[in-house]
Amino acid sequence: ECLLFEISPTYESFPATNFNSNYVYYNTSFGIGFGGTDAVRKTSTLDNKNFNSYFLQIDNTLQSGTYKNDTLKKSRSAYKLSTTRTYFDIEFEVSEIQVFGLGGESAKQQQDKEKKWEENFATKRKHYNNKSADKEMLKYASIINHEYRREVDTV
Fold first, then answer.
1. What pTM was computed for the model?
2. From the centroid of its chain, how far is CA 49?
3. I need a surface site. Which of 48, 103, 121, 153 has the fewest CB within 10 A?
4. Secondary structure of 40-72 in the HEC alphabet?
5. CA angle 131, 133, 138 (to 5 degrees)
6. How big is the CA angle at 4 (ends 64 and 106), to the nearest 5 degrees?
């Protein structure tokens, strides 16, 4: 089950419809789209937001997006359209994104397995001593050069 909701200016929920199952679309060059399809597929995302039928879209930088509702447009949205307003097309800036995983017990087990692997890997890296390689890189970048280091007399 999937739904989108709006908190402000008034609370309204947009449950999934049976028209299609295009609940969420993600592409690194496009961003994230909820409840629609791309009318134009292209690698550039500059104008793509104007031609798609997404109910809610967040661009590929995750910094801005559009929120649209057009009851007169002949689209079969995956989400129910607003009943309080017939048309809106709002551009917004993203201040925070929260993602909730609701994948069930098998997804939780996989997540725990990956988290344990990451913790083990981090522990192994903590005990790895490559100070000489780090120093050589810093010398190469002229950030440090202990060969020519000298104490400065202070008066």
1. 0.53
2. 16
3. 153
4. CCCCCCCCHHHCCCCCEEEECCCCEEEEEEECC
5. 95
6. 100
- CA dist 88 and 69 (Å) reads 5
31: three-class secondary structure by DSSP? strand
Strands 31-34 and 3-6: unpaired
The CA-to-CA distance between both ends of the chain, in Å, stands at 76
Question: For residues 14 and 117, what is the distance between their CA atoms, to the nearest angstrom?
Answer: 39
Tokens 């967040």 correspond to 58
Number of Cβ within 10 Å of residue 144's Cβ equals: 13
